[in-house]
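Example 3.
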Amino acid sequence: MKKTALISGITGQDGSYLAGLLVEKGYAVHGIVRPADPIGLSNLADLLHPSKRDSVQLHHADIREKDRLRQIIQTVEPDELYHLAAQSDPGRSFECPGYTAEVVGLGTVRILEAVREIGLPTKVFHAASSAMFGRVEISPQDETTPFYPMTPYAAAKVFAYWLCVNFREAYGMFVCNGILYNHESPRRGGNFFTRKVTKAAARIRAGLQDRLSLSDLSASRDWGYAPEYVTAMWLMLQRESPDDYVVATGEMHSAEEFVEAAFAEAGLDWKHHVDVIPQSRPARAENLCGNTSKARERLGWVATTRFRDLVRIMVEADCALVAPRHEGSVTERS
Ligand code: NAP
């Protein structure tokens, strides 16, 4: 029988790739979208095309609306629920810690409570984050490494993570945490470091912009390709029993390496175009790198897109958005 999946955060980078994967696998896919005006559906453009009518059904709710979420879950009766909705920007979480806790922390409470109260056998995936490791003392990190969050975002994710473990143990619910390391793609929000860099490289190449200002290039991250990470989410919910998994590449690269590689892909020398202007930010996670042994052994999942390929995919996509209109002039598509 056709399985039904419900995705919170379906308009985001991961939600849109996951929706595509599940449609391909024959699921009836439902998504929760914020009742914004207009709703940002560009990541879902392919799936919402008239030729694919009814492949995805959208339901309006903010993750803060408990009753509405409950209604949606009761109507959809999902076999699998992928909870991805979040205020997902760690830097921004210092500007709105209360809102971040409300969406990331209490949003997860509302999802889990609704599934429990309705009494459905729904399998739940929660998108936890490598940011929870924050001030790292062990590298690479695995599922047993202690958390030390360095941002309100990471603190809220730690709360949501433990809540998932608690509901699993206290109520016997099927709930999995994916401890996701940074994963990027052409659908990454423009406020995130990698996309800021690839967009700027494309625009500078096209003559639309001269320079890029960045605040710090010293941090190192474990950067993977988002479409592969949503496969790991799906695999977790296909197991007999629920568990938590690190999802990462196991390779670490510095922010400076990312900038150098992105500008090189665009045929540019980053040193001629990038200004590093230190800005104070209260704190950020230290260098993060994941140990993926458990995901490899139990899910049969490994990241296959390498760092340079990820950078190339993103730069090529951003260059394609800056298309020549007529000789000597360029136009930009959003
Ligand atoms: P994203 O592109 O920022 O997408 C976030 C999604 O959440 C969007 O669909 C957004 O809707 C929705 N959302 C935000 N606030 C909401 C609210 N109040 N009510 C309902 N929906 C709301 O994030 P992503 O990169 O796909 O990440 C997916 C999940 O993985 C997030 O939970 C993130 O924290 C986690 N994660 C991501 C990474 C990464 O590197 N990408 C790493 C670790 C963990 P709008 O379109 O309306 O804004």
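The longest strand covers residues 123-129. The pocket of NAP is lined by residues 9, 11-15, 34, 36, 40, 62-64, 84-88, 103, 127, 129, 180, 182-183, 189 (CB under 6 Å).
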